[in-house]
Amino acid sequence: MEILQLLLSGLANGCVYGLIALGFVLIYKATEAVNFAQGDFMMLGAFVMIGLVNPQFMGLSFWLAVPLALLIMGALGYLFDITILRQLFGQNQIAIVILTIALGFVIRFVAGVIWGHEPLNLHSPLALGDVRFGEVVLSLADIAVIVVTVILTMLLWQFFQRTKLGLAMQAASQNQMAAYYMGIPVKRVQGAVWALAAAVACIAGILYASKGAVDVSAGFIGIKAFAAAVIGGFGSLPGALMGGLIVGVIEPFASRYLPPGYSQIAPYALLIIVLVFRPHGLFAQVRTKKV
Amino acid sequence: MPLTTAKPLSEAGDQTQALLEIRNLETFYGPIMAIRGVSLDVPEGKVVTVLGANGAGKTTLLKTISGIMDPEKGRIVFDGHEIQGREPHQIVRRGIVQVPEGREVFPLLTVDENLSLGAYTKSNRAEIAQARELVFSYFPILAERRQQEAGTLSGGQQQMLAIGRGLMLKPRIMLLDEPSLGLSPLLTQEIFEILRRLNQEAGMTMLVVEQNAAVALDLANHGYVMELGRIVMSDTAERLAASEDIQRFYLGHANEGARGERRWKKRKTWR
Known about the structure:
The complex is a heterodimer. Chain A is built from 11 helices and 2 strands; from the N terminus they run ααααββααααααα.
C-alpha cells in the first residue's frame, strides 16, 4: 500500500515535470534551440493565474481565468519569438540558449515586482482536500493533475496527427527546407510552436499551483524537467512525458528508501546512467542519416 | 476612336510570352556571386533543362526562383507577375513547386502525410483527393505504401514521393533539382519516363536541373548550359545533344585526341 501511495504522488509530480519537459522538446524540435526559460514560463503561468483568480488581485472565476491565462501565456510565447528570437535568426545556437537563460532572469524579476517574493497559494477548486482509497490517501489536486495531463496528452496527440497546423509543425521540425518548398510559412509555424509551448507551461503552472504554494523561484524545477526530457530522449514528445513521470516517481521512492538528501540527486544520477548506456535517451526516435 | 486604340493591345497579344522568364538574375551565396546574370525562358507546356557541373549555380538558381534565396539584381517574371524576392509560401501559392535535390522527404511522416503537406496551400478537399488519385496513377507504388514512414522507403521511392508531393499542389510549373541524383541508371530511366508522361499527358511545364545530360536532353525541348554562374550555351535539346562540346564534357564521348586529364575530369565526388 505504501508503494502505491508513493507511486501515485510521484506520478502527480511527474506530470508537472513531464508537461514542462514537453515544452522543452516542442521548442527544440521546431527551432533546434533549448529554451531554458521553460520552467520560468511555468512559474509565470502560475502567477498569471493567481493574478487573475485570487481575491487580493483580480478575483475572476477560476474557469474563466483558465482560458484567459492560456491566451496570455500563448501570446507572450508568440511575441517573444517574433520580436526577439527572430532577430537572432541564423545566429549561433549558443546565442539563443543564452538569450533564453536571460529571459528566465527577466521573468523571475518581473514576477517578483508584480506579485512579490512570498509564496502564494492559488485559490483553485482543484485543491479541495483528500480522498481515501483504503489505506491510500490522495489529494484531489494530485488526481486532477494526473487526469488533466492524460487529457492534454490525448488532445496534443490529436492535434499533431489530425490538424493541418500540427502536421506542418511536424514537417517543419523534420525537414525545415522541404517545409519551405511545400509553401509552409515556417517562421509563423515556429511562432505557433512557441505559443503552444508557453500554453502547455501555463497548464503545468496551474496544476503546480493547485498542489501547493508557489514563489518566483518555482521555475527552477525546469532543470529537473530538462533532465527528464534528456532521460526520455530529447526530441521525442512521448519520451518527454515518460521522462517526467520517471523522474517524478523516482523522487518519493528515493526519499523513502535512501538516506536523507539522496532524493535531490536521484534524478540526476539516473540522468547520468541513461546518458552512459542509452545516450539518445530511453524513447528517442533515432534516425541515422543515410549517405 | 476606340477601334484604333485597340492596336497596341493586339500587338502585345502577338508576343509569345514564356510562362517563366528570368532576366539578368544575380544571386549571392554569402560573399560569392553564385548567379552572374542569368536569363532564361520556360514556355508553357515545355520541358527546359539546365545542365552544368557541381558548383555551377544550378541549385542556387532554383532556390532563387522558389524564394528561398533573394536575388541581388534581375527579374523573375511568372505568368506576367514579377515574383523575385517574395516569401517562399507566396511563390508556392502561385503554382511554382520545387522538387528538391536529394529527395528531402519528411522522414518520420507517412507517405500519405507527406502528400498532404504537398497540398498545404490548398484547402479544397475534393481537389486534394483528386490530386492524390493523379499522383497514385503515376506512382502506383506510393498507393501501396501509403501508411509507411517515408524515411523507410528506398531511394527511388523517396524520389517518386518527392515528385508526387510536388504534384499535389497541381503546380503550373515544376522545378526539379537533379532528379537522377543517387539513383541507378535503371531507376533514372524510370523516373524520367514518368516525367515525360507528365509533360505529354498532363501538359506539365518543367525546369529540370541536371548533371546527367543524356537523360535530361532526351526529355527536354530546350537546354541551357551553365558554368560558374553564367549561361554559356543555349539551344534546342536535339542540337545540344549533337554538339561536340556537350558530347565531350557532359556525355563522356571523348573524341580521339582528347588529353588524358579529361578522363578524371571532376564530376560528382561527395555527398
